[in-house]
Design goal:
The complex is a heterodimer.
Chain A (H helix, E strand, L loop, with lengths): L3 H36 L5 H15 L1 H4 L40 H36 L2 H16 L2 H16 L5 H6 L2 H39 L2 H8 L4 H38 L10 H12 L4 H29 L1
Helix pairs in contact in A: 1-10, 2-4, 2-12, 4-5, 4-8, 4-10, 4-12, 5-8, 6-8, 8-10, 9-10, 10-11, 10-12, 11-12
Chain B lengths: L2 H27 L3 H5 L6 H10 L6 H13 L13 H36 L4 H15 L2 H15 L12 E5 L3 E5 L4 H33 L3 H8 L4 H23 L1 H14 L5 H10 L3 H29 L1 H11 L9
Antiparallel strand pairs in B: 1-2
The chains are: A mainly alpha, B mainly alpha.
């Protein structure tokens, strides 16, 4: 029988932990701020500036983009394959030119970068939370929990992220019947389109999160095990703290630096991975602006001298991933 | 067999069992396998007849048993898309991927080892700094971007190398029941292989180089390196003979762990360069939700990873005397010394 007192004590405990979590979150923010601010102020120079500029641009993308790439009625097929405005044949109406169907490249770029960054951030958040929680659990829990979690992570790790995502994507497509045949696409009405677009976003996010959590779990477990063996944990046990409190107050503050390094690295990898999936034709569908899809469709234009259709999205993608990766490398050097 | 070997094989066996079971569930539980093989105009009675014929009315575990039996007979099911046996499709695609993976890894090592040794030996030179910067940049790029850039530079602009396909191939008879086409024997086959292999090597070497550099930096601080310098040996001899010999074992084990990456890189390169290999087969199958091929690919890649892992263990014990000594010690069940 579950009595009201047990329920209440559970609620009380949850509330207490929530309070603790908020307190720790402020410490958490302060630590990262102080690391970046005091210790190595100059080191974050161009990378962080470029990244924040890009995030800012991407957030205001709908205001910045002259056209709505989702809006099919604004497309003029006459305007297809126009070069950027700084060429003779280009017009100021389409600053970066148009693609094979007359869509504005600049609008598609901003919206594409937006979905890439959005997916990257979501994946990093989900994989980071799951992986960190499992890694801490593996370090703190018994031997059985440790074995189960780490064996699962090992199996997952032997498959690289894109392969996991590809296989999950294949499964997800069967379940949601996304893009199974060309005929079904033609007969699908608006709301079905909408469902499929959302489904493919969800599939990509779930697949990438599944692929990246083991990196967090492994690193955090290794770092946490080192902390558990230190004498101050024994001291904490001696003053009567319980396992969870030791974990939250002593272990976590000492391992969270790793989370940031890994999170930044995961962000760059997840964005690259999403673009790859979309490029391969199994990520985001063709009617959603995304950098990978733009490169795939523009690829044929490269042979005919229409380099801007695939070249500009490639450039944006390169800048995005390389910037984030170099920030991750800086974090690694600083926190080492 | 010692306990260590036994534990190793058991853990690998559980991984294989898990992957095989997942693959079985994929083909068995998802979608409708019966309607995939029947004619589109068939009715419900026909469906029921076929379902009974395929054994769909039997319990799940019995179906799993017959799946395993079929697996041992080499029967991986029939593709939904092309209605050919999956094993035929896999065998047709395997040679192209094998050529690519082998050449890619060899080239990657050929780039990564000198670069890693150089950056570790002279970390302050501007060339080392440039190499390190480049490796971060290349390593963080999506694979298909650098493959596309290579393709555009070398085949579209310069017109030196073919952009698509795999050229002429040489056919071998394989154990009497199948054939194996390799592109390594002909000029056009090698030319078609050059760009994809280089694209893979570039990405793989970015990672391997940093690994070698970290290992070498640790090794170069050891006293025996100083002793070698004191004996007046040439620096290249110290770096390549004395220091690199100690870096081999982490290199071999991480190459084997990174083999999954090579397989994944092969998928992407095959799509970019339209090489008719396993990767292209996988992508086409995923596009058409062709579950038998997807699950067969899953099982095949798992087996390849484990085979590579075992080979790496053997190679490791060959190149590294310390591992050999450890194995020998375990074999003779000698008591472990505390000195280690």
């Amino acid at each position: 029988m579950i009595s009201i007192t047990t329920v209440w004590s559970l609620v009380e405990r949850v509330l207490r932990y929530a309070l603790m979590a908020t307190q720790h979150f402020s410490t958490f923010c302060y630590t990262f701020w102080s690391v970046s601010r005091v210790k190595h102020r100059a080191r974050f120079g161009w990378g962080a500036a470029a990244l924040s500029a890009m995030i800012g641009l991407v957030v205001i993308a709908p205001l910045l983009a002259p056209f709505d790439p989702y809006e099919l009625s604004s497309i003029e097929l006459r305007d297809a394959r126009l070069p950027p405005a700084f060429f003779d044949a280009g017009t100021m109406r389409y600053l970066f030119g148009t693609d094979g169907q007359g869509r504005d490249i600049l609008s598609a770029l901003t919206h594409g970068a937006r979905s890439t960054l959005l997916i990257g951030l979501t994946v990093t958040l989900i994989a980071g939370i799951i992986g960190t929680a499992l890694g801490l659990a593996a370090s703190a829990g018994g031997r059985l929990i440790d074995t189960i979690i780490m064996r699962a992570a090992d199996i997952q790790l032997s498959y690289p992220a894109i392969l996991v995502a590809l296989l999950l994507d294949g499964v997800g497509r069967t379940i949601f019947a996304v893009g199974s045949s060309g005929l079904a696409e033609l007969h699908a009405n608006g709301s079905e389109y909408e469902t499929r677009n959302v489904a493919s976003f969800v599939i990509v996010i779930v697949a990438l999160s599944m692929a990246y959590w083991p990196y967090f779990a492994r690193t955090i477990r290794a770092a946490a095990r080192v902390e558990w063996s230190k004498p101050y944990v024994g001291a904490a046990e001696a003053i009567g703290l319980r396992g969870f409190e030791i974990l939250a107050r002593y272990i976590w503050p000492n391992v969270r630096g790793q989370v940031i390094v890994l999170g930044t690295w995961t962000l760059s990898q997840a964005m690259a991975c999403e673009a790859t999936l979309s490029y391969l034709g199994v990520g985001l569908p063709g009617n959603v602006p995304s950098l990978g899809v733009m490169i795939r469709t523009g690829q044929s234009g490269l042979m005919m001298g229409e380099w801007w259709i695939a070249g500009l999205p490639t450039l944006v993608l390169v800048v995005l991933t390389v910037t984030v990766a170099s920030i991750a490398d800086r974090w690694r050097i600083i926190l080492r | 067999m010692t306990r260590r070997h036994l534990a190793y094989f058991l853990s690998r066996l559980t991984a294989v069992a898990a992957v095989v079971f997942i693959s079985f569930l994929l083909t068995d539980q998802l979608g409708d396998p019966v309607s995939q093989v029947m004619a589109p105009e068939a009715d419900l009675a026909e469906w029921q007849r076929l379902a009974a014929e395929m054994g769909r009315d039997r319990p799940l575990m019995l179906r799993f048993g017959s799946f395993i039996l079929d697996l041992f007979k080499g029967d991986l099911g029939t593709s939904y898309r092309s209605h050919e046996p999956v094993s035929t499709l896999l065998l047709r695609g395997a040679p192209a991927t094998m050529d690519l993976a082998l050449c890619g890894i060899t080239l990657a090592l050929a780039i990564a080892v000198p670069a890693g040794v150089w950056t570790a030996a002279w970390p302050e030179r501007w060339t080392s700094k440039l190499i390190l910067r480049l490796s971060i940049g290349v390593g963080s790029l999506p694979m298909f971007v650098s493959a596309l850039v290579l393709m555009n530079v070398f085949s579209v602009w310069l017109g030196l190398l073919p952009a698509f396909g795999r050229g002429e191939t040489v056919r071998f008879q394989l154990l009497g029941w199948s054939t194996w086409d390799t592109g390594l024997g002909t000029r056009s086959g090698l030319l078609a292989l050059a760009l994809p292999a280089f694209a893979i090597a570039l990405h793989q070497s970015a990672f391997l180089m940093r690994l070698i550099q970290t290992e070498m930096l640790n090794i170069l601080q050891k006293p025996f390196i100083e002793a070698a310098h004191a004996r007046g040996l040439a620096p290249w001899r110290i770096h390549y003979r004395h220091a690199l010999a100690n870096a081999w074992s982490p290199l071999v084990s991480s190459v084997s762990q990174q083999f999954g990456n090579v397989v994944m890189f092969a998928v992407v390169t095959e799509v970019v360069f339209q090489r008719p290999g396993l990767g292209l087969l996988l992508i086409r199958s995923i596009e058409h939700a062709d579950l038998p091929v997807i699950s067969a690919y899953l099982m095949l890649s798992c087996m390849v990873f484990i085979a590579v892992d075992i080979v790496a263990e053997v190679v490791l014990s060959m190149v590294d005397p310390r591992v050999r000594a450890r194995v020998a010690e375990l074999r003779s069940d000698a008591t472990r010394s505390d000195a280690a």
